[in-house]
Amino acid sequence: MKAVIRTVLILILVLAAAAGGGAWYIWNGMQPVEPAGPPVTVTIEKGMGSSQIADLLEQEGIIKNSLFFKGYLKWVQEGSSFKAGTYNVSPGDSYDTLISRMNAGDVVKEEMVTFTIPEGYTVTQVAEKLAAAWNQKPEVFLKLMDSGEGLEAVSLLEIPSNPQLRHRLEGYLFPETYELVKDSTPQEVIEAMLDQLVKKLDTIPEWKAKLANRGLTLHELLTVASLVEREVVVDKERPLVAGIIYNRLDKGQKLEIDATVQYLLDKQKERLYEKDLKVDSPYNTYKQAGLPPGPISSPGLASIEAAMTPEVSDYFFYVTKKDGSQGHLFARTYKEHLANIQKSKQNP
């Protein structure tokens, strides 16, 4: 009997020791790794499950045992809300710390580039702005702006490929303040600007129907809008000047808009001379009837809306006031226009 009791006691002690050893093994395996070295960058891809994430954390030396981490996740009912992204994690982080950060999406903030394209900028000016922001040569961006190659929005917007165009994407790069990832490629940067144009157009109720009612293509609309953008500073005058442009087009008159000639010059002039107005180009609206081949700048939303919904009037002429207001005097006839020119000169 004593021998039996001794055997039972030994078995109990062995089982207790085994259980204790197993418990210690599990407890130890769930403890944070000893802190050592700098944080480790770990990227959780979209679609990765908690099991794959656990294996990745073990592989990167963040946790001791992925099996224990998986078990812990099931016990605390976590792991279904982990967010994809790149994390800076450290050996020594506890299970709860790791879970909390991945639930919150506490990812590494990517270095961003912020740049602003003012309304009325030309493609050349935009390229220079982007080149400065990304420490590139303007030609890198100009090449894409001229060809439109590989840009999805080119098809969506039906941007024409016309040999008469100075720059294919002129007028389509929406003027806005942008914040993009520093690692963005030139193609991604330009695509973002084209996408912004689409978004802005979609803020105009029934813009496609309005365009169809006017019998215009988007390219023609943006061309008119770009003329308004370069000719007008006072917002309330934009629809009126757009209406004057349509009045001239409807009558078959030449537009004779200075901004189209300025567009052909390497450097803007404060005043155009007779020789400037004689330059041979499809963009010169003093020589060519109708609209130029395409936009001459990047119009803002106000100018686009003005071109889409112009103010109806019987005006055909306008001249800039010289009083510093940057407004215009409007006329129905050429005789009235000449009088307005003299009147504008009398402004202080």
From TrEMBL:
Keywords: Cell membrane, Cell wall biogenesis/degradation, Lyase, Membrane, Transmembrane, Transmembrane helix. Pfam families: YceG (PF02618). Belongs to the transglycosylase MltG family. InterPro entries: MLTG-like. It catalyses: a peptidoglycan chain = a peptidoglycan chain with N-acetyl-1,6-anhydromuramyl-[peptide] at the reducing end + a peptidoglycan chain with N-acetylglucosamine at the non-reducing end. Its EC number is 4.2.2.29. Functions as a peptidoglycan terminase that cleaves nascent peptidoglycan strands endolytically to terminate their elongation. It comes from Paenibacillus tritici. The record marks E231 as: Important for catalytic activity. This is Endolytic murein transglycosylase.
